[in-house]
Amino acid sequence: MVHTHRNLGSILTGDQALNRLKDGNARFVAGKAQFPTVQKDVLAMLARGQAPFATVLGCSDSRVPPELLFDASFGELFVIRVAGNVLGPAIEGSLQYAGLYLRTPLFVVLGHQGCGAVEAAMAKKFEGAVHASRIDRLLEEIEPALESPDPILSDEQQLAIAVEANVRHTLRKILYSPEGERRRKEGFMKAVGAVFEFHTGQVRFLEDD
Asked: Which band of pLDDT confidence, cut at 50, 70 and 90, is reported for residue 180?
């Protein structure tokens, strides 16, 4: 089957872009992914420019590549990956580029089940764990999202709550930045949080809660 590049970034609404991600993840879960390869003529067309329909801020974890999870082809997603899907000056610059120049209608903060960065931040904040200096600096971005763990819950449940809290924390920082508020008021941006679950392959969008 030949797949042509779909220049959708400038014509989809945020809700339509979100539905495309949900449909793609459903194909991934069902083992019916459409994009195992890409045609050379598609690559030649992409060389002229990009128009992704969504920007995804995800974790660097090698097990959670957004393009595969959403069954998206070349040129369809603008992906930014950093441990713990946290913000920082370079990340914020990439997000600003996606908003100002690519005009992606949808921004997704994608966390994942069992995130090691979130687990390390919990150990640092609540158990006094010590980490290397630059890792420690990254974990400081996650710590404000973490609440005291509930002793009734298992370690796995506590981590799941913390992963979601970290996604929401990053999402709020994007939504309520001056640029984020302006773009939302203008109707040019939708932003959602999501968590990938290994045991099902599903991406759970937090707006569905």
From this structure: confident
Alpha helices in the chain (DSSP H): 14-30, 40-46, 66-69, 89-97, 116-127, 133-142, 155-175, 178-185
What is the side-by-side order of every strand in the sheet holding 190-196? Answer: 77-81, 54-58, 106-112, 190-196, 203-205
* Dist CA 17 CA 6 (whole Å): 12
Contact 192, 171 (CB under 8 A): yes
Going 64 to 69 to 70 to 71, the CA torsion angle's sign is positive
d(CA 182, CA 185): 5
The structural domains of the chain, ordered by start, are 14-208 (3.40.1050.10)
Q: What 3-state class would DSSP assign to 173?
A: helix
Work out the end-to-end distance of the chain between its first and last CA atoms, rounded to an integer number of angstroms: 37
Q: pTM score, two decimals?
A: 0.89
